[in-house]
User: What shape does this take?
Amino acid sequence: MKVIGISGSPRKGGNTEILVRLALEPFKAQGWDVKEFFLSEKIIKPCIGCESCTQTRECSIRDDDMSSICEEFSSCDALIIGSPTYYRNVSAQLKALFDRSYAFGDKKPLEGKVGGAIAVGRGEGGGQSIVLNIIHNYYLSSGAICVPGELNGLTARADKCGDILTQERRLRQANTLGVNILKYASMIKRA
Assistant: This one.
């Protein structure tokens, strides 16, 4: 079985990436195939609105990393997406990935698969709940099933790289999110 972890942060080694990695740990412990995509290391160009994908069922932009991520969507069983909160929204890098998914059309490679969400922001009420909703909306629009952590998803307050490492509760919640996704993905696979 395969799980994909996507950190939408442009910051290498940042708090979002740390939490996504921690949420993937339960899958590694169970011997799953774990694929990590950190958008700090990838180039995802924004959708140009050309609509050619409505005819060809493929995105006309081919000179970036989107196709390698899309290939993994078809064969995964679960997905964890995290984003920092920028102006009460997901990062531009993650938004580009979401927008480019429009090219899937009726293929729906995430349909029936389970996913969890992580949102990290600088302050309390900094838009983390909105970011969770945006990620969950992406899942729902893709036919995926949203899996909660301790509550809705994982929200955290952190600013500087590594701040999250001093927050034991958030680290534990990342693991709980991973465990819950693993549980639901395994149940669906058995059914």
